[in-house]
Amino acid sequence: NSHDTVNVKSGASVNGATLASEGVATFNIEKGATLNNAHINHMYGSDQTINVKGTLNETEMSLGTGNNKITLDGATSTNKLRVETQSGDDDIVIKNSKILGDENLIGNHNVMDIRSGQNTVTVENSELSRVDIQANGGASDKTTVSLNATKGERLNINGQGEDDVFALKGGSTLNSSGVNLGNGSNTIDVDGAKITRSGLITGSNDDIINLKNAEMKDSYVETWHGKNEVNIENLKTDNTKITLGGGWSSGDNTVNIKGNFGDVDANSYNKTAISSFGSAVAKDFINIADNANVHNVRFDLNQKSDTITIGKNATVSHSQLITGDDNDTLEIG
């Protein structure tokens, strides 16, 4: 089997060209090399590898079927990066790199269009600005997007009917961004991160949201339909709303709270809230663990029989507990 290799050496500048292969190929863009308005095209090839250490400007990468891998290591993309993968298990790794957008343009012009397969996007020690990551697979597919020690600004991360995972960890920040994983059985995992002016939505199905050792300001979380689980452990908030269920949803929702959880504003118990969607007809279960400390939070549960359980030696202060209509239960100790 043939294997083509294309090397763009340090100091080289490729302008308006197409780099293509019809078979298995490796493209290496070395540090100090630049692609301007260039295309890396699969030409019906498969199992392609792209390694970028240089600079990209208005660059498109279109990869074919098979298992492809793109690695940006120490790279910079200044504007209009477009990555498209087809079927197959694809792996995109971005480390020690910057993908930036033009602030003078409306909308996001950096796009990663990821199709069917078991796919991963792993970002570490990097900066992403004005990037759309689109998981466009079907019910049997899965895309995992992980940001570790990364600054995310104006990101849109969207899924469809597949089972998706979004992880934000290791001191990462997410600002003015939106995550909506669509209608699969999805997981959002936040650990050691700070989220500001952003939304986290798992979509309709049975989903899990983990919020641990994190800070959230002027943000919201929505589970939509399905049987959902929200796990909170040491979450510091400032005007953050968590909404359980969606319109006429009937799947039970469970919220488990450990450690410290609450709003920084001691004069308000309304800025941070855990509420069931207005027309939802699901049962809601709020479990506050032993020794937990909950403060400045409103719990507002609507229809059906809801249960709030407060564990031993737990503290709930300056908060509201509203169980709503039907036969509800409050257990203390």
Q: What's the helical proportion of residues?
A: under 10%
Roughly what fraction of the amino acids lie in strands? over 45%
Distance between the termini: 68 Å
Question: Can you tell me the overall shape?
Answer: elongated
Q: In what order do the strands lie side by side in the largest sheet?
A: 19-21-24-26-25-22
**Count of beta strands:** 36
Average pLDDT across residues?
A: 94
- How many individual helices? 0
Main beta-sheet strand count, sense and barrel state: 6 strands, parallel, barrel
Rounded to the nearest angstrom, the radius of gyration is 23 Å
Backbone structural class: mainly beta
Low-confidence parts: none
Any chance you could write out the topology, listing elements then pairs?
Blueprint: E1 3-8, E2 13-15, E3 18-20, E4 24-29, E5 34-36, E6 39-41, E7 49-52, E8 55-57, E9 60-62, E10 69-73, E11 76-77, E12 82-85, E13 91-95, E14 98-99, E15 110-114, E16 118-124, E17 127-135, E18 142-148, E19 151-158, E20 163-169, E21 173-175, E22 178-180, E23 187-191, E24 194-196, E25 199-201, E26 208-222, E27 228-244, E28 253-263, E29 273-276, E30 284-288, E31 293-295, E32 298-300, E33 307-310, E34 315-317, E35 320-322, E36 329-332
Parallel strand pairs: 1-4, 2-5, 3-6, 4-7, 5-8, 6-9, 7-10, 8-11, 9-12, 10-13, 11-14, 12-15, 13-16, 14-17, 15-17, 16-18, 17-19, 18-20, 19-21, 19-22, 20-23, 21-24, 22-25, 23-26, 24-26, 25-26, 26-27, 27-28, 27-29, 28-30, 28-31, 29-32, 30-33, 31-34, 32-35, 33-36
